[in-house]
Structures are given as C-alpha cells and as structure tokens.
Amino acid sequence: MSCYSLHLVLPVFLLALFPARAADPDTLRPARGLEEIVVVGKATGFDITSPVPSQILSGERLEQLNSFSVADAARYFSGVQLKDYGGIGGLKTINVRDLGGAHVALFLDGMPVSDARGGQVDLGRYSLDNLEAIELYNAQRPTLLQPARGFFASSVLLLRSKTPRLEPGTTRHVTVTARAGSFGLLNPSLSWHQGLSRGATLSASLAYLRADGKYKCRYTNGVYDTTIVRQNGDIVTARAELSLHLPLSDRTLLSLKGYHYSSERGLPGPVLAGRFSNEQRQADRSTFFHASFRSRWGDRHRLLINAKYNRDYSRYTDPAYLVEGGLVNTCRQGQFYLSAAHALLLAPWCELSLAVDLARDVLSSDARDFPFPSRHSAWGALSVQATRERLSVQANLLGCLVDERVKSGKPRDDQRVLCPVLSLSWQPFDARTFRVRAFYKRSFRVPTFNDLYYTPLTPATLRPEFTVQRDVGVAWEKAYAGLLSTVAVQGDAFYNRVKDKIIAFPAGNIERWTMINLGEVAITGSEVNARAVLAWNEHASVRLGLTYTWQRAIDLTPGDTRGARLPYSPAHAGTLTAACAWRAWHLHYCFIYTGDRFFQRDNTPESREPPWYTHDLSIGYRRVWRDIPFRVNVEINNLLNHYYDVVRNYPMPGRSCRVTLSINS
Amino acid sequence: MKQTTKKRSPRGSVPVLVTLFAIALAACHEEEAPGKPLPFVAGEGLFILNEGAWHANNATLDFWSTTTGEYAREIFKQVNPEAVLGLGELGNDIGIYGRKLYLVINGSDKVEVLDASTGMRLKTLSIEQPRYITFAGGHAYVSAYGGATTPGHGVVVEIDTATREITRRVEVGRQPEELVVAAGNLYVANSGGLSSGDYERTLSVISLDRFTRDQEIPVAINLHLVQPDGRGNLYVSSRGDYDTIPPRLFVVEIARARVIDSIDIPVSRLAIAGDTAYILGMRYSSETATTVHGYYKMDTRTRTPLAGSFITDGSEGEIMAPYGIAVHPLTGDIYVTDARTYDVGGKIFRFSPGGRKLDERPAGVVPAHVVFKR
C-alpha cells in the first residue's frame, strides 16, 4: 500500500477557469428549476462539493478545444485513456482508470446509450456540434433523481444536447456551421430552435459529414523508412435530431426527441508487413425515440419518467474474404427502455429516492447458427442522501436481475446481483473552499451478447465482471481579486480491483476460444487536475489547465503474465492547456501526453509502445457583422507531425488542419 | 551422436536478452545498425517460426543452436533490418531446401527466401495467403488460399529454387493446407475451413509432370496435415467441425488412392520419424470447459497407438498449449513448442527420444513451426 499513500499526496486539483461569473442563474437553472441543478460553473469544470470526482467540459471551453468528436474531447479528462483506431471513421472508445471500456456508461440527455452486443459505444460518432456539455463522473452522478442505470457503472460519461435558450423577445435561434479540413473533410450542420406558444420550443439539428480519410503515416526503424497513405478510411455520415420541449405547467416538463444517425465507412484495418490496406466496409444506422417527463409536486416529491425505443442496424462486408461472394454480415439490435425515478424529501437534510428501470434487448443476425438472444433486465437503485452543514453522505443499494433467452442453442444463466455504494463529501474547516471526499463502490457489467454467444464454447455459467473502487480526494477552489483571479485544484487517489474479468481464453486450440471469468486486475493510481485564470481586464485573460494521471494497473490473473502491467495502460498521462482571450480573438494551445505502455500482456521489450504526445493549436475570431454574429476558428492538430499509434498497427494522422465558420441568427 | 547443448542457465540467456533489449531500445531511437550476421547461425541447430498474434504483425524467426546451445530471438529482424515492418503477419510454415530457408508468411501474402547459413534475405515472393511448403526435384510447392480464378478456391504455386521464380500454378480445393510429394505426385489437403458446415473432404492429387489436378481422394471433412510414412502411405489429419465431429487421423494408401485406416486420435500436429508417428492431440469438453492434451505415439508398421505418452517424466504439466512438434532426424530428440495462451511469449521444449525433458527456451508469440539445419 505504500504506493497508494505516496500518491495520495500528489493529487492537487484544479478548478475554475472563470470566477464566480459562473453563477449566471439562467444557465444554471433552466426550465424554472425543473432540471436538476448543475452546481458546477460552466467555466470551472468541476464541482468541489461532489462526493465523487467530476469533470465537466461545457460552453466556451468545449467550443475552443481542438476536438471534433466526443472521443477527442474526452482526452482532456484525467483518468481517461482513449482507444483510438485512427482517422475520422476509426473506432474510438474510452477506458476510465483502467477498469475496461465496458465499465463506462454513456448517457445522452439522461438516458443510457448502450450496445448490448459489444458493450462499448463508438464515441467517434458523437460530434460536438449539438452538445452543450460533456461530463465525466467516477462511480456515478451524485444526483438522486436519475434512471437506475445511472448508478450501475464504474464511471459515467454524460452528454448534454444543446437546450433551447431563446433571448427575450426572439422566437427563433438558428446556427449554421460549416467545417472543412484535412482528410477531405466537409461537415456542414444546422441547428434551429423555434419558440412556440406557452413556452414550448421545437429544435431541429441536422449534420452531414464526408471525408476521404486519406492521411500519411510513417513507420521507420532507422534502416527502413516508409510513408504510407492510409486507404479505405473514407466515411459519410448524416445525423438528424428533432426535439420538443413542452412545459405542461410551472412544475412539469415533457420532452420528446427523435434521433437518427447513419454512416457508411471503410475499415482501413491494421498496417501489416506487405499489407497496408484492407477492403472491409461497414454501414450503420441508429434510430431512437425518447420521451422524458419531469415533475415536482408539493415541496417534497420529484418524479422523472423516461421511455426510449432504440433500433440499430449494421452491415459488415469483406469482399476479400475467401469464400464465394465474400463475407456479408448484418446485425440488428432493438431496445425498449422504461425508467421511473422518484425522490422524496424526508427532511430538509435528508432525501430518499427509488429508481427502477426495465429493459428488453434483442439481437438478430444472419450469421450461421445464430442463437437470436434476447434479454430482459430490471435495475433498481435505492438511495438516501443526508446533507448537513459540512458533511453530505450518500448511500445506494443496487440490485439487478437479468433474464437471458435464446431462440436456438444453449441458453445462458440468468444473473442476479446486489451492490452497495457509499460516498461522502466533507468540509473539514470553516472555509468553504476546501473539501474532502471519498467513495466506495462495488459495480459490475453483465456479459455482453458477444461474450455469451460469439463463441459456441462459452460455458453457460459466465458471470458478471465486477469492479471495486475506493477513492479519496480533496478539492480546493479560491477566487482572488488580483490578476490571478481563480485557482482550483482537485486530486484523488484510488485503488481499484477488477474481479472475474471476462477474458477470451483458448479452448486448447487457437481455433477454439471461450470466454471465462478468469481475469483479475489491481489498479493503484492518482489524478491531479488544476486550473488557474489570469485576468487583466474583461478583454484579456488566460486560462491554464493541467491534468495528470499516474496509474499502475497490474494483471493478477494466474499464469505467465501475473504481475505484468495491463496492455495499453500507461503509467503516466497528462494534458496541458492554455486558452488566451483578447478582445474578439482567442488562442488555444493544448499538449497531450501518454507515456509508454505495452501492447502485449507479457510486457516483452518488443511489445513496448513508445510514448506519444501531440501539440494542438487553434485561433478563433468572433464578431458581429451586419447584425449577424459569426465565428471563425482555425485549428492545427498534431503541430509537430508526430507519427504514433494508440493501438498498435493502427496509425494516427500526422499534422492536420480544420477551419470552422459558424453563423448565428 | 552426443549433443553438446548447453544447459539452460540464467547466465546463458542474459546476453541474448540484453542484446534484444538493446536492439529494441535502438529501434525506438531510430538508430538500429544495419543487419549483422550472427556467427552461430552458421552451425547446426533449428529454426523456429513464431506465428505471432492476429493483427499484431509479430511473426518472428528464432534459432536454437544444437552445437553451442545458444538461442537467438528475432534473427530475421536482426539480420534484415531493411525489411519493412519486419517478418510480418502470421508465419504459417517453414522449410529448408539446399542452402535456403523458406518462410511462409500467411497474413503478409509472401514467402521469404533466406540464406540458411546467415539468415540474410535473398528474395521475397508475393503469394496471396500462402499456407504450407514442400520441396521436390529443384522446386518448392506452396499451397495458398488466394490466387485462384474460381472464387473461393486455393492454388498450389511452383517455385524454381535455383531462379527463385514462380514457374507454374494449379487450382485445388478451398483453403488448401499441408501438401507433400510422393510417387511423382503432389498431394494437397483441402480444408474448406472458411465455410463451416460446408467443408472440403478430399486430397487433391497433382501430377508434377503436367501440373494439373488429376484426381480427388475422399478422406474426411476439413483436412489439415498430410505426411508420408515411408511405407507407401500418407497420414492425413481431419480437424473435424470443432463441434460434434472430433479431429481424427486417416491413412491413405498412395498406390490405391484410398483410405485404408482411420485412427481415433484427436490430432492437432503430427511428426513422423522412422517408424514412429509423434502426435499432439487435444480433446475439449464443453461440459466441463476443460481441455485434455495428449502426447501420442504410434507405430507406423502396425498403425496402432502405443500405450502412454511420448513424454515419460511427467514434465508435460509444464506445457500449457502444445502447438508444434518436430523430431530431430539423427538424434531422435523431440521438440515441442508451447503457445501458452496464444497472446504472450511461448516456449520450446526438448525431450530425449525416451521422453525425458532435456531443455527449454523462451520463444516468440505462438512458436509453431520448426525445421532442422544440418
């Protein structure tokens, strides 16, 4: 435990970039107090009273990042490792504190976005255009009123769509954005908020994207020096969203949303000796309808009901597969989701809540001998939160039932799980600027459809994969009157375990694999997050941000690799950002560093991947021209043209640029 | 003939590791020296081709000297640093003919021809998804999944070993695997392994004169290995369907072109030396999710399995996933490679003809194919 205590000292956190200006009541409490209150100022990026570490990117900070998708933006969070297969269409998933990508739950507008088949959602498909905020919580969101599923994750990545905020006296707000750049990128988008009678708003958002995905990458060992132009990385996507916000009364809000996304892309594959390109392609379509009802009655009751229907389709083709006609595989997923949460204020200092979710997932495919699995799950979370002057404590009890069915073949065992969570935040001194927090959480993920059915040899008894998280942290934030207007620091130390990790294991032969609960991992680490704002006057300011993560993820699975570092787990990772604003101009610089890591479980010297780092720069200008506000942004990413792989043999792009023009009316 | 192999000791392996580490570091600093020949590769020993893991581009070539006992990892990379991205993706077979060493690299669509005494690259032949190699009469024959005009079918490619050029090619069944020359013909095991439920079930017979497919000998589904027993028969293995039909060994009489015997051994690898067939076998039970590995031995004169394991000192417990087997033609020593969990460095073990463990070395990822150099 010596490492644990040593690194406990390191964490220092950072917070606010912008001073208490963040307390703009309109932005914090939209829809007349019906929305949950976002205590965090949009500029500070975290909430020091949260019992769990939270990091938030929103508003200007989100706009100015050199980021294209949610995956790019998530790199700025501490504790996050992005797994990026490169290019605009390459799969991008995140792993928080080395617990594994399937333990991160993605929420879009308060509802889970899940993939029952693979367990991980491609974050590359979520563009930042229509997002207001991206929030990362370790353990869970501290709010009591949320779907039960929100408590069932080891960490939560939450995306908030832009909500209509019409200026007084206007009934319409339209934003047109055009973006173009390297890799043949062309990306126009439109968002339209229309005010209707009785405070209702209708919003539409449309986006189109195309890119040829061609970029140079270079491999050298000092003797050979080969530059390759990445092929078959082209992509076309289209997204359409329509939503209606309908206040039924002062205390009741109904939201309806329809969403459609489709994409067609090449899968460039790994770069291998003698084979630099591939011919596989994939088409995806995803559609959902989401209705949300939020109400408050009396002084004590709050209610949140959500219903969602989701359909996904994907089609994979491999013309080079050596059977007649090549390989074509289509797959459809459907999900019904119903969630109800009720929070009851027992006393001014104590609130109780119960959330229950019911879901039905089905998967079908034209693959041979496909079992057509379906899954009924029920998730329940009973929570209590007590808030005293200086101490707030939240306890949750989570229970889950999963019923597995198949149309053909061997059924799998049903799952029943109970998990406790305890989190607290404590203000030890009179000063409100310093708080201590801690949480303990036992969580799990159920085996995915792929885990259960991809290989017929997988035993019926595959169990959920568990994580245990222990975290202690401090947060400090202070505003000053001078040049240094705000300083904020937060730091956490953690010790995590992954138990019964589901891993692929050869069933005696390289052609026969089975999934078993064999893996075990111990992760010790700490994170530091620091921010400072220097403001000369209202026209000139510099915001500085620093994140640093130290992790030691050790494989405890019995066998040859016991004691080795987990693949793709760097010991050190960090970011440094500087945002300078001067009148209508802004300049944003960012440095991202990921230390060396091994791609193979046994950490051989040849499996070591060298560190990678990128320098990104952007310059923006905004002004009003003939009553029309517009904004221009020029980004240069990977300024030093550093060639690297995040995933071995999947090269990342070198230097690239993007220009964005956006007009409001 | 007494072997002068050095006992495995930490001291023995340290310089190798240090060298490798230095090379790995040098690679990172882009200062790798041009290829240096490794003197001991000139002597007797065995080459080990490590398949590498899928999409990891880490097929590697090792050499284990039987005269000095030294074991060198990654000699292809050391001797041929100019080879772009190294040896490549999925090494599937190795062969030696004359003074040349042939490496069949399935995922990189190539066959590397090396000087067997130095490891220096002489030529790279481009063949789509090559699988196995055999030699006869100044030619090399390579089976390959790709390159046929009939969709889904495979080919056999003929290479002139003097000019190192491809001379002829002939279409065979789907996904051809091992091949062997016997009685003036080439026998190719067709698998159809990419179409589960619709496997191939024949050996294709190709006359070497005309290089045409003359005959199909029905054997069993999903054929894999084919090796001669020196008594006019071919030992042919079927991989089964990985479900209800287990792997099995068949004996085909060359003269009558038909199956004359079938032996209930779940064969995964086979090596025939003298009158003995050494077989790695594997039975998997899905009820208990356990795998039982077998180290079978068979008398090719009577075609009956001999009782017991060919490992006799109980050391088979050290082997996690036996994957490759080779028997030294002179000493009779048995070499077994261990793929461990298929994603980490493997091992190679040496056993005496009596089945006693003599030695072991750490190898690359999925050590699989072994050839002796004398």
- Give the helix proportion of chain A (percent range): under 10%
Indicate the mean pLDDT of chain A: 89
Average pLDDT of chain B works out at 89
The largest pleated sheet of chain B is described as:
4 strands, antiparallel
Task: Please describe what this structure looks like.
The complex is a heterodimer of chains A (665) and B (374). Helix content of chain A is 4%, strand content 58%. Chain A is mainly beta and 665 residues long. The N terminus of chain A is likely disordered. Chain B has 374 residues and is mainly beta. Chain B has one domain: Methylamine Dehydrogenase, Chain H (7 Propeller), CATH 2.130.10.10. In chain B, 6% of the residues lie in helices and 49% in strands. In chain B, the strands form seven sheets. In chain B, strands 3-2-1-28 form a four-stranded antiparallel beta sheet. Chain B has a four-stranded antiparallel beta sheet with strand order 4-5-6-7, with no helix packed on it. Chain B has a four-stranded antiparallel beta sheet with strand order 8-9-10-11, with no helix packed on it. In chain B, strand 26 and strand 27 form a beta hairpin. The longest helix of chain B is centred in the first third of the chain and has 19 residues. Chain B is globular. Chain B starts with 9 loop residues before the first helix and ends with a strand. Classes of the chains: A mainly beta (665), B mainly beta (374). Chains A and B meet through strand 25 and strand 26 of A and helix 1, strand 21 and strand 22 of B.
